[in-house]
């Protein structure tokens, strides 16, 4: 049992819309889903049994927290790209689980956001983000560290196919689709409700979800004074609590708050695409 920092528990994102942190505005950007549950992606509970509530506490006590993953805390930097920040973080975590932390590759959220939005702050739906991450993919982040990592892994990518994390008006390079296709989601599941979300975390998956127009990534579960909270990774840079190996960026949602956002959808990326060029990553 721990005492959670109250300023990061059940945070009112609407009240923080336009909130200035370190000189930048933090902007929500998630639109309600356009589709119906199970219409685009298979339902999670049809592939995985929902874990009964009476088993949750015992399982959490034995559960290896996803906070051990080297997922980075992203920063929207004033753009309404939260859906793609959470989606990129989910692919990031899933890749790490599949290939190992020594093969970690950073991915650019805005390179996917441009596929779903008409401007830097129009936002996008999770349905669009998850569909595009599965069919089109995402480009690697343009940092010297990431460039060196990709070269070390022997992945052949043109020098101009690296993309910034932010900057909606950055232009795609010629032939970028071929590189983005290397970094796609393979299996995606649609979650019915809160019980599915908790079950998914206990199975070892991260969950992309939203509320109050803001999208976040569920990475863990924690009890505080006998009450269960979902631990999420946000994308507002230095905003947020410490959790696991993460020194900042996290918040905590109660069941009622999670349920309030179900009209946005909740999704699991179970596996990422592994084309022939990347088979060596799984070795």
Question: What labels would you give this structure?
Answer:
283 residues; Cathepsin B, Chain A; seven-stranded antiparallel beta sheet; two-stranded antiparallel ribbon; 8 helices; 11 strands
Describe the protein.
- This protein has 283 residues and is an alpha+beta fold.
- The protein has one domain (6-282): Alpha-Beta Complex (Cathepsin B, Chain A).
- It is built from 8 helices and 11 strands.
- The chain has helices spanning 56-62, 82-99, 109-113, 126-135, 144-152, 176-180, 194-203, 255-259, and strands spanning 19-21, 24-26, 30-31, 124-125, 185-190, 207-211, 214-224, 227-233, 241-243, 246-253, 266-272.
- It has a 7-stranded antiparallel sheet with strand order 5-11-6-7-8-10-9, sandwiched between helices. A two-stranded antiparallel sheet has the order 1-2. A two-stranded parallel sheet has the order 3-4.
- Strand 7 and strand 8 (227-233) form a beta hairpin.
- The radius of gyration is 18 Å and the shape is globular.
- The N and C termini lie far apart (39 Å).
């Amino acid at each position: 049992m721990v005492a959670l920092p109250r300023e990061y528990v059940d945070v009112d994102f609407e009240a923080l819309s336009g909130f200035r942190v370190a000189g930048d505005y933090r902007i929500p950007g998630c639109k309600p889903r356009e589709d119906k549950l199970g219409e685009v992606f298979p339902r999670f509970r049809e592939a995985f049994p929902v874990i009964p509530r009476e088993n949750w506490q015992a399982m959490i006590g034995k559960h290896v927290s996803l906070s051990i993953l080297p997922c980075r805390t992203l920063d929207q930097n004033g753009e309404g790209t939260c859906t793609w920040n959470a989606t990129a973080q989910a692919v990031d975590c899933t890749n790490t689980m599949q290939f190992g932390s020594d093969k970690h590759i950073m991915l650019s959220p805005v390179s996917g956001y441009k596929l779903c939005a008409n401007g830097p702050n129009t936002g996008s739906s999770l349905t669009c983000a998850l569909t595009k991450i599965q069919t089109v993919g995402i480009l690697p982040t343009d940092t010297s560290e990431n460039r060196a990592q990709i070269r070390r892994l022997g992945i052949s990518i043109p020098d101009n196919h690296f993309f910034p994390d932010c900057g909606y008006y950055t232009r795609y390079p010629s032939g970028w689709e071929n590189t983005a296709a290397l970094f796609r989601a393979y299996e995606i599941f649609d979650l019915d409700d809160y019980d599915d979300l908790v079950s998914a975390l206990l199975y070892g998956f991260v969950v992309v979800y939203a509320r109050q127009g803001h999208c976040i990534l569920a990475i863990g579960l924690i009890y505080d004074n006998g009450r269960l909270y979902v631990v999420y990774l946000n994308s507002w840079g230095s905003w947020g609590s410490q959790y696991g190996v993460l020194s900042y960026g996290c918040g905590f949602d109660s069941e009622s708050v999670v349920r309030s956002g179900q009209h946005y959808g909740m999704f699991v990326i179970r596996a990422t695409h592994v084309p022939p060029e990347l088979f060596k990553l799984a070795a």
